[in-house]
Amino acid sequence: MLTHLKARLAEALDRQSATAEILDVISSSPRDARPVFDAIVHAGQKLFPRSTISIGLREGDNLILGSISGPEPAGVEAWRRRFPAPLHPETIHGHVILEGKALDLPDVAAVQDRFRIGAGNFLASGFRAVTMTPISQGGRPWARCRCCGIPPAVWTRNSSRSSTPLRRRPTSRWTTCIC
């Protein structure tokens, strides 16, 4: 029980530290959103070091990349090349922005029929799990925050890279501490 409480306390302190860093950037960049987006994705990267964190911004009928951070530079660059991307309800990011609802998909391969346009594109990135949440202003979604995590080789129980299964963190932690 004590170990569990210490782990929860450490998570709470990590979230508070990330939030403080983001608030410092907001106070020093009142007119420029880019440093704030960069601070958000870098804070997310610290909290989830094996995940790729990004913020996408709505620009007309497209999504452009606002900021991105990830553990592998080649993967970050490959994701960067996928933008701009069309906003369409059959893409995962399009659904999040157009519907204004967060999504937590532990296995995108299982929902390919729901996201016919976006699932294949996402799976080609090498990840299986994604959590996306809309960023709204005045009740209107204008951006989305994405946390891709757990590449398939690490996600599956029969992975040759890991003898122990990796458990996902609760959805509330993914969405609360990042965006």
Keywords, separated by commas or semicolons:
alpha+beta, 179 residues, 22% strand, 6-stranded antiparallel sheet, Beta-Lactamase
Structure description:
This protein is α+β, with helices and mostly antiparallel strands. It has a single domain, classed as Beta-Lactamase (2-Layer Sandwich). 42% of the residues lie in helices and 22% in strands. It is built from seven helices and six strands, in the order ααββαβαβαββαα. It has a six-stranded antiparallel β-sheet, sandwiched between helices. α1 runs antiparallel to α2. The protein starts with a helix and ends with a helix.
Give a topology summary.
Layout: H1 2-28, H2 33-47, E1 52-59, E2 62-69, H3 73-80, E3 85-86, H4 92-99, E4 103-105, H5 118-123, E5 129-137, E6 140-149, H6 152-155, H7 171-178
Antiparallel strand pairs: 1-2, 1-6, 2-3, 4-5, 5-6
CATH superfamily: GAF domain
Q: How many DSSP H or I helices?
A: 7
- For the record, the CATH architecture stands as 2-Layer Sandwich
Number of domains: 1
- Overall shape: it is globular
Radius of gyration: 16 Å
Largest sheet: 6 strands, antiparallel
- Share in helix: 40-55%
N/C terminus separation: 30 Å
Q: What is the name of the CATH topology? A: Beta-Lactamase
Largest beta sheet: what is the strand line-up? 3-2-1-6-5-4
Q: What fraction strand? A: 15-25%
Structural class: alpha+beta
* Average pLDDT number: 76
Number of strands: 6
Low-confidence stretches: 150-179
